[in-house]
Write a structure and sequence with these properties.
Layout: H1 2-52, E1 57-65, H2 71-87, E2 93-98, E3 111-117, H3 120-127, H4 130-139, E4 143-152
Antiparallel strand pairs: 1-3, 1-4, 2-3
Helix pairs in contact: 2-4
Length: 155
């Protein structure tokens, strides 16, 4: 009877060890598949970033209006600038807003406009475009200060 119990225990031990080996092997295989997946994802994300990175040129324009510019004058300039996004197809994206920073470091500049281009050639063509030149004529009588910075966006 004792030998029979020993045989049963021995069989169960073999079954459990065999299952543990299968579990350990599956765990290793799962780990390798996960690592391969992570490497593939990282590689594809790096390639996507490299392909996209040189395609966003930002043209940042900041204004301070003359002290005697009325709210209607400022609105006219805002609308004229915003209207360029639909008139000039070279513009990839356009957004703007007014300063609300509590830091008081804006050098009296109140308005910021972001114009996005795909290339320097598109930006250069925008600068001499007749609609841009017409906008500048709307702006000039009301402008006190302007700052312009262009840069290639990086992530």
């Amino acid at each position: 009877m004792r030998e029979r119990k020993f045989e049963i225990v021995k069989k169960w031990a073999i079954i459990i060890c065999h299952n543990d080996l299968k579990y350990i092997q599956m765990k290793k295989i799962t780990r390798y598949i996960f690592l391969i997946f992570i490497v593939l994802m990282a590689t594809s994300m790096t390639n996507a970033q490299q392909n996209d990175s040189p395609k966003t040129l930002r043209h940042v324009v900041m204004f301070k209006f003359l002290d005697n510019a009325t709210a209607a004058d400022v609105k006219k300039v805002e609308d004229a600038f915003a209207g360029l996004a639909t008139k000039i197809k070279l513009i990839k994206d356009f957004e703007w807003g007014t300063n609300n920073s509590p830091e008081n470091l804006n050098q009296e500049l109140t308005h910021c406009f972001f114009v996005t281009f795909s290339s320097e050639q598109d930006r250069d063509a925008y600068l001499i475009h007749p609609d841009h030149k017409a906008f500048v004529e709307v702006l000039k009588p009301h402008l006190d200060k302007v700052t312009v910075i262009d840069y290639w966006a990086k992530k």
